């Protein structure tokens, strides 16, 4: 359901030098498959997730998401496709501060073509254990609770793929386990494919498939081989 082909991405650095960041010949995830992505800081994990989500356009190569060739579309069209097909749990949550937990999940449904469903928003917040905090704004929630709102929001549109960028980086080990269990179970129950980035070996060990980006990404693997 996700396929990357010959993805290359470079960034112009402040000194005007163009520096290659990604060179991924191939990467695939099957429908409903759960994959953990690991690799040292700076090896391109967030850049890869942004490329899969169509937030960043690669210099060359193709991203196929649920049979759609995302990389062929304009930024506005990619935004629409993303709203329908993809959930994204950002490392820093990106919740809207002026809105309650419930409103944040409802807003997650705004840009998708499916009808907004207050029942689903409530059900998801119940599922993440926040039915007693529906009307709290982010600054009235603990960090772990904000993280769980972000998970509920990312699942709001029943995406085909959920991307989660270090979703447990800001919580204690007990909550870390809870959030991972929650993400895995929610994806499994709705056959949502999952790509989760982590620095935690305890989290990685809970997945059957663990991919190392520093091996998949030729920019990094070649640099390592040369040093
Ligand atoms: N907009 C940008 N302009 C220039 N360089 C960038 C930009 N975004 C990322 N980079 C560079 O790309 C490289 C990969 O960054 P990325 O955020 O993808 O790493 P990461 O693997 O997610 O790291 P971490 O584990 O620390 O989150 C870094 O060297 C970073 O400096
Ligand atoms: Mg990152």
Structural write-up:
The chain has a single domain (2-226), classed as Rossmann fold (3-Layer(aba) Sandwich), CATH 3.40.50.300. It has nine helices and nine strands. The chain has helices spanning 45-53, 75-85, 101-108, 118-127, 143-155, 173-189, 201-204, 213-216, 218-226, and strands at residues 2-12, 18-29, 34-38, 60-65, 68-69, 86-89, 161-165, 193-197, 209-212. Strands 6-7-8-3-9 form a five-stranded parallel beta sheet, sandwiched between helices. A four-stranded antiparallel beta sheet has the order 2-1-4-5. Helix 5 runs parallel beside helix 6 (173-189). It is globular and about 55 Å long. The mean pLDDT is 94. The structure holds adenosine-5'-triphosphate (ATP) and magnesium ion.
Strand content: 15-25%
How does the overall form come out from the CA principal axes?
globular
Q: Quote the average pLDDT.
A: 94
- The tally of beta strands, per DSSP, is 9
CATH fold-level name: Rossmann fold
Q: What is the distance, rounded to the nearest whole angstrom, between the alpha carbons of the first and last residues? A: 36 Å
CATH architecture: 3-Layer(aba) Sandwich
- What ligand species are in this complex? adenosine-5'-triphosphate, magnesium ion
Radius of gyration: 18 Å
Give a short account of the largest sheet: 5 strands, parallel
Number of domains: 1
Q: Which blocks of ≥5 consecutive residues have pLDDT under 50? A: none
**Estimated structural class:** alpha/beta
SSE run: EEEHEEHEHHHEHEHEHH
**CATH class annotation:** Alpha Beta
Please bin the fraction of helical residues. Answer: 25-40%
Q: What's the number of helices?
A: 9
CATH superfamily: P-loop containing nucleotide triphosphate hydrolases
- Placed side by side, the strands forming the largest sheet appear as 6-7-8-3-9
């Amino acid at each position: 359901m996700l396929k990357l082909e010959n993805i290359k991405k470079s960034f112009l650095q402040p000194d005007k030098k163009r520096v290659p960041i990604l060179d991924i010949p191939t990467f695939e995830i099957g429908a409903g498959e759960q994959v953990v992505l690991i690799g040292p800081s700076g090896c391109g994990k967030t850049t890869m997730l942004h490329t899969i989500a169509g937030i960043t356009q690669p210099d060359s190569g193709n991203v196929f998401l649920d049979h759609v060739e995302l990389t062929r579309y304009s930024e506005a069209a990619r935004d629409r496709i993303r709203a329908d097909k993809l959930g994204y749990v950002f490392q820093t949550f990106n919740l809207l501060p002026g809105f309650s937990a419930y409103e944040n999940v409802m807003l997650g449904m705004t840009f998708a073509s499916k009808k907004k469903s207050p029942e689903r928003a409530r059900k998801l917040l119940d599922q993440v254990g926040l039915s007693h905090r529906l009307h709290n704004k982010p600054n009235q929630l603990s960090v772990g609770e904000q993280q769980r709102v972000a998970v509920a929001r990312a699942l709001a549109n029943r995406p085909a793929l959920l991307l989660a960028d270090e979703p447990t980086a800001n919580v204690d080990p007990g909550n870390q386990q809870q959030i991972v269990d929650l993400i895995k179970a929610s994806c499994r129950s709705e056959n949502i494919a999952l790509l989760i980035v982590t620095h935690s070996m305890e989290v990685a060990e809970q997945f059957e498939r663990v991919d190392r980006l520093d091996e998949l990404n030729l920019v990094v693997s070649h640099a390592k081989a040369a040093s």
